[in-house]
Sequence to fold (904 residues):
Amino acid sequence: MKIIVAIKQVPDRDAPIRIAAAGKWIEESGLQFSMNEPDAYALEEALRLKEAHGGEVIVLSAGPERVGTTLREALAKGADRAIHVTADDLGERDALGVARLLSEAIKPESPDLILTGLQSEDLGLGQTGVILAELLNLPHASLILHVEKTDAGLKVKRELESGWFQEIELPTPAVLTIQSGGNKLRYATLMGIKRAKTKETRVLNAAELAPVAPPTAVLEKIALPTKQRSTQILPGTPKEAAAALVEKLRFEVRVL
Amino acid sequence: MILPHATLAEPPHFSVLERVVFAALVIASAVSFWQRFGPIVRKILQSKKDPGFRLAPIGRRVWDFFSEVLLQSKVIAQRPLPGLAHAFVFWSFLGFALVTLNHCAVGLGIGFLNPESQGLSGLFSRLYFYLAAVFALLCAVSITGLFVRRFFVRPVWLGKKVSIESGYIAFLIFALMATYLAAFFTTDASPAARILWWIHTLALVVFLPLIPHTKHLHLVLSPATIFLSREKFSDIPPLANDEDFGLVAGQDLTQIVSLQAYSCVECGRCTEHCPAASTGKALNPKDVILGLRSYLNEIGPATEEPLLGKHNSQEAIFQCTTCGACEFQCPVGIEHLPIIVGLRRGAVNTGAWEDERGAKLFNQLERGSNALGMSSAERDKFIQKESLPIFDGTQEYCLWLGCMGAYDPKGREIVAAFARIMQHLGTSYGVMSKEKCTGDPVRRLGNDLVFQQLAEANLEILAQNKVKKIVTVCPHCVRTIQEDWKAYGTPPEVEHHTEFLARHITQLPAVKTKESIVYHDPCYLGRYRDVYDEPRQLVQITGKLVEAERNRERSFCCGAGGGLAFLGEESGERVSHARAQELTATGAKTIATACPFCNSMFRDAVGEPNGLSAAPKVLDIAQLIDSHLGEPTLRLYTRKSDEDHRSH
Ligand code: SF4
Ligand code: SF4
Fold:
């Protein structure tokens, strides 16, 4: 099976986030970046499929030069080769624009399966994978925890709300967006890093792949979450207080 | 009495036939020795050269050889009675070298020690033979004692199987000594003397080829093993090149590792002291070494056959706490840690080790800053809450928090206590705003990739901030910064807080309560760093120091080291419980620790003190002292260095 995994590099979760002067995006200088976590699970799923059925895993990422480190990490974990769509202007492209770039890079490869994370940890739109399927005119399924290869194509396990799951069969080629937590992630190894040095990374120029079209959605303004902490003391006997607490948990916070 | 006139079992005349038979026996014995010993030497030489091995400084090697081989210091110190018995056997062998040479020479008619001759040479010969007789007597008694111990007392660590060969060898040694001594009571060319001579000869020619075949190989190899041992304790060698991932297959075994594998005398000291082996785990350090030996015998070096499999199990290798008791104990200079960590490196650097928690730890440290997997914002909050100053280059010390000190609630208490003492002493210090895990757990688990990333990142931050001196409450940080980081740069000076505090002891409160405090030596402070006295001095200014049954160099691990604190549940009894019981059994009211890992292990093991149970409190030495700050200090003497410090 030939599998392409589309990966995004996002600011490290531990990184101290500041808003850039223009107020439309975060200040990227001085930040550390790492692989978007759901994409890491997509890569893991792809590597497991390859281990079970053979084939090739190609990792694909669009972004500036720094994206190279994340691609190398993916190669180190076991991907066979990488495609880097170099673009310094991703901020000016919306999910549709990015998906266009990715689809152009994917087309000549004609893979059997395209995996990507359900959503990114920075923007969290959850759009790119789905639009990609549209652009490639392929069937797709989202929120996937587990992929199984069958004679006819694929059987996938999809997460629904509150502990329910759904199993779907679909033909290949297909696009799946992967939910975090379906597998245990493997760790990068020294041997993997050394071997990755000899693996191919093809560099494609974004401007040549797809011209920048005016975005259909633009970020107007971003803000850091304001911290709110309000403590309430529930009065009454323990019994009354407990009843009031259940009431609040059920209807106000809606966790019960 | 015949004694003074004895010719010491050396009949002067042998017939030609006797000489021919004798020569044939000696040659047969030597050939059969080499037939067995040659392949071993070849296997050792065929092994890979040791990366980073240096013969210099030769002085240390000569000293180790003198003390551990010639004086048998370790053999005796760690097991006094059998150790002394062994030493007598060994010294007798040394003494007998000349006697045996002469014995053979006599057989060929060219004996050079003649007690009958006149003058100096006769005097020397007589003296030497009597000296050898003293040794022979001690040796005969000793070997009998050792025989009784092995076959009748049978300590568990010698293994369930009694080694018949050992009995055989003991018998031969006894025969050698007995025949030598008996000859004193014969006259010159008497038939009795002749018979004794021949029995002595037979014992010799049978003994020689047995050496390479049995654990008595250590007779020939261990002097070399001790002389060639690595420079430091738990000295993890550098990786040789891009294709070196640690001990993966036979081709990765180095000459020193192979030499050590063949030197093991199967005494079981390592196993006796191993926390894993003593709590029912699969790991047994003696079997790790013997496993490598069987691998070498059956498969050999320079092959691609994996080392973990039939001869050593991956499960066992990952149960090691890297406490170093085995390496410390081994009387023949076998270094278990480079081997065990080497095997882990082989498994982790190639991805062969699959472990859920291990992978989680690695992923956490690949991306994040600490082994506990928390957000570094939590560390910032702690620093703010305790108002710890940030290091800005003007302070004398960088106070290194470590993962436990920065993120673990109890570890934080230790750091806070120590910070208050530094304040009290007027020592200037600051903490790094961006500190990462030193990489201790990944280093011990054999993940060179993540270790390198962490070491380099930390070295860079420290260099940027011009840090010259580090002090920390965690002995694992101390060791990793000081020794392991050297592979990637030059670390600043670093010391443990107990060393720092002991230097300032005269300025610390001396309350001398009657409360009994038992001190637990952390592996990484004791065996790894040789710091035993400083923490004890500090305990003594706060209370009455009591010792656990196993203390100092023989201290028993808390179970947290080697990255195990971050892996899953143990199989068998928990190491921490075994040690906590031993500490509690002293009746002490307080367990004093000097490592945040030990501290948290023992807290779990003894349970929180409450009115009902008599569980001792578990406190770091810094906390013990902190609780008395403000009380009068011990000022028996004022050292110049203290004056200097105060003037800062
Ligand atoms: S280092 Fe400690 S735990 Fe590991 S094998 Fe040696 S004695 Fe056992
Ligand atoms: S490794 Fe050392 S301590 Fe362990 S059994 Fe062998 S010789 Fe004894």
Summary: The mean pLDDT of chain A is 91. The radius of gyration of chain A is 21 Å. The first strand of chain A starts at residue 2 and ends at 6.
